[in-house]
Design goal:
Length: 359
């Protein structure tokens, strides 16, 4: 029988805080492809790979952390879990709570939740509350609820989430047989950059890699508190997943940047959508806008002459394009691309396609 990937807890059991007493709640997350991206390699003169986290069971990297958070919550006797979310965390929490046989409550900001993500939370029977406030408000409320009521918090401020998400760094090393020179990823609440850096550090301590990659993180210009150096009251960006004004793991993101000799920068919505298109139309990978910021960030640094020639670079793209597909159909100007209407006449269609007759 063909071998099946067993999910990140079983695959990395010895490197996670689990024991034989931990019930393993898994949907087979992790084991995502590291895809060579020749079109990006050519553009920047380096060897570029894309870690496609949209291939996880609920379509985002959150599943790596959620298998751990829900499994550990069950070990501790949880009957319910709660999270604040810009969308993907709620989709993942809802699915893994279902797999565990418990209920997830999710607090989502008013509006600006991509429809694919909301559909998932509904489909998995989460208790969904839309809060009058942005993500940062939702997270504050979720934290207070978990302190005062019998409900486990599964946001990335829960260290079990970071533990699960660090496995993505292990997978990169397993495939490349080394660490990349540069690892690029989106930054929202800054849990993922924290998790990757923890993973790389542990691999270095274990002697598996000799040096750490430079961690490059990117925030959307309208939601770039770390770049600006202060929290933002009303963050805004087309990349709704990272519409976050006061990241919970702010200090850890700064540490990852500084210890690795890395960089955290900001990217405009225009450049995010341009990169979204480059990734889908030149590489063949469809992601949600927040994920495209990894590509936009790399291109931005290349234009500034700051991408070392011939270096090995991994871009994490965090969520699937089908989560929020509208950006493929129309850009910031709102002009929608629609298919050309045709009759079913073969010659007319051939003409429209620019095909010459076989004679
Ligand atoms: C596709 O779902 O915060 O820096 O509530 O969905 O670890 O927060 C999502 C974040 C990047 C940012 N890409 O990661 C949530 C949420 C996608 C995301 C991020 C998110 P962090």
């Amino acid at each position: 029988m063909a071998k099946q990937w067993r999910g990140v807890i079983r695959e990395y059991f010895d490197r996670l805080p689990v024991s034989e007493h931990t019930p393993i709640i898994t949907l087979g997350e992790g084991g995502t492809p590291l895809i060579p991206a020749p079109a990006l390699s050519r553009r920047v003169g380096a060897e570029v790979y894309v870690k496609y986290e949209g291939m996880n069971p609920t379509g985002s990297f959150k599943d790596r952390g959620m298998t751990m958070a829900i499994s550990k919550a069950m070990e501790r006797g949880a009957k319910a879990v709660i999270c604040a979310s810009t969308g993907n965390t709620s989709a993942s929490a809802a699915a893994y709570a279902t797999a565990a046989g418990i209920r997830a409550a999710v607090l989502v900001p008013d509006g600006k939740i991509a429809m694919g993500k909301l559909s998932q939370a509904v489909a998995h029977n989460a208790h969904i509350l839309q809060i009058d406030g942005n993500f940062d408000v939702c997270l504050t409320v979720a934290r207070q609820l978990s302190e005062r009521y019998p409900v486990h918090l599964v946001n990335s401020v829960n260290p079990d989430r970071i533990e699960g998400q660090k496995t993505a760094a292990f997978e990169v090393i397993d495939v490349l047989d080394r660490a990349p020179d540069i690892h690029v990823l989106p930054v929202g609440n800054a849990g993922n950059i924290t998790a990757y850096f923890k993973g790389y550090r542990e691999a270095q301590e274990a002697g598996e890699i000799s040096k750490l990659p430079m961690m490059w993180g990117f925030q959307a210009e309208g939601a770039s508190p770390i770049v600006l150096g202060h929290a933002i009251e009303n963050p805004d960006t087309v990349a709704t997943a990272i519409r976050i004004g006061n990241p919970a793991s702010w200090a850890q993101a700064i540490e990852a940047r500084d210890v690795s000799g890395g960089y955290i920068g900001a990217i405009s919505d225009e450049k995010i959508l341009e990169a979204h298109r480059i990734l889908s139309a030149e590489v063949g990978i469809f992601v949600e806008p927040a994920s495209a910021i990894s590509v936009a960030g790399l291109l931005n640094r290349h234009e500034a002459g700051l991408v070392p020639g011939g270096s090995t670079i991994v871009l994490t793209v965090t969520g699937h394009g089908l989560k929020d597909p509208q950006w493929a159909l129309h850009g910031l100007d709102g002009v929608e691309t629609t298919p050309t209407q045709m009759s079913s006449d073969v010659d007319e269609i051939a003409d429209a396609l620019g095909l010459a007759s076989r004679a």
